[in-house]
Amino acid sequence: MKQIIIVGAGASGLVAAIKAAAGGAAVTVLEQNDRPGRKICATGNGRCNMTNLNQAEGVYRGTHPEFAKDALEQFSVKDTISFFQELGICITDRNGWIYPRSNQAQSVVEVLTMKVRSLKVKLKTNQLVTGVSFSDGHWNVHTDGWIYTCDAVILANGSKASSAAGSGESGYKIAR
After folding, report:
1. Which residues partner with 138 through β-bridges?
2. How confident is the model over 92-143, as pLDDT tens digits?
3. Are 77 and 85 in contact (CB under 8 A)?
4. φ, ψ for residue 42 (rounded to 5)?
5. How far is CA 53 from CA 80, 109, 129, in A?
6. How many angstroms separate the CA atoms of 67 and 59, rounded?
7. CA-CA distances (angstroms) from residue 56 to 69, 81, 176?
């Protein structure tokens, strides 16, 4: 069974965990905060902007805006909406911005976390990842107190674009 470590328990990390575990992998998620989804709760003024219908190239900024296009070709807006609806999250469209009908980001976190746990994903909080290395055919994910060994690593720890707790440049440093 393939062992996968996911760094970050925000929306993308939890979705990646669900997809990997549903595909048969043994998954461990390492989150630096004391609970998953802390950054999700800051999006959309606490309502959780799940996605946007407008996916034109000009709406993404950054050093490599083409990354969004490549990523969305792998998991489209339609895929995103279907994924959340299959989990039982009803959505609402507010001028192209997609939110949970509850208007509560915490409800999205709770549903994602329940699904992760039902798939037997290990969710470890307060785990600050300090580096990733590769040796003897395996990846090693280093934290302050442990080294996790796995077959694959997914970096899903966000960016410095948000002022929410846990946002920063750690993901960039790990990727380098």
Report:
1. 135
2. 999 999 999 999 999 999 999 999 999 999 999 999 999 999 999 999 999 9
3. no
4. -90, -15
5. 11, 21, 33
6. 12
7. 9, 17, 29
